[in-house]
Amino acid sequence: MFAFLILFFFAATGFTLNHASWFDSEQKVVQRQGTLDAAWVAGDANAVKKFEIEQYFVRTQGVKGQAGDFEISDTECDVSFKGPGYEADATIDRATGRFQLTETRSGFVAVLNDLHKGRDTGTKWSVVIDVAAIGMTLVSLTGLTLIFFLTKRRAFGLMAIVIGAAICYLAYALWVP
Description:
Layout: H1 2-18, E1 28-35, H2 50-61, E2 66-72, E3 76-83, E4 86-93, E5 98-105, H3 108-117, H4 122-146, H5 154-175
């Protein structure tokens, strides 16, 4: 039953990915301003306290996701956080510690689509995807090999496999640029 649940998830989200425009939900964008400890961004680029800054945004601003790019210039720092259906970008003035934070939350379908793709989901979810893929492969191979043990349906089953493969190839050859 677990394999069927995983199969359902990837089949349904495959459909929503293929027709993303049908399922676009409004993105919720929130902008906030504030000030963090200016000492964290003072000095040369090596002195910038990246960990403290990232933790500040998580603790005080409710930012989610994994910290991604952290760029440091002479005048500002830019830090981004990404997760499934979620993105937050902060620009920090290095002279004053003032920041502008923009959070973008996408809808439920966007979260599911990102989970399907493994986009911004981290290494642990990547393992879930790999286990699901191995499970679906084993279930598929079991079903395909089962036809060899059903003597009354073997010819029809093998013909269905060949015809199905030919249809997929023709669709690819004719319709994929």
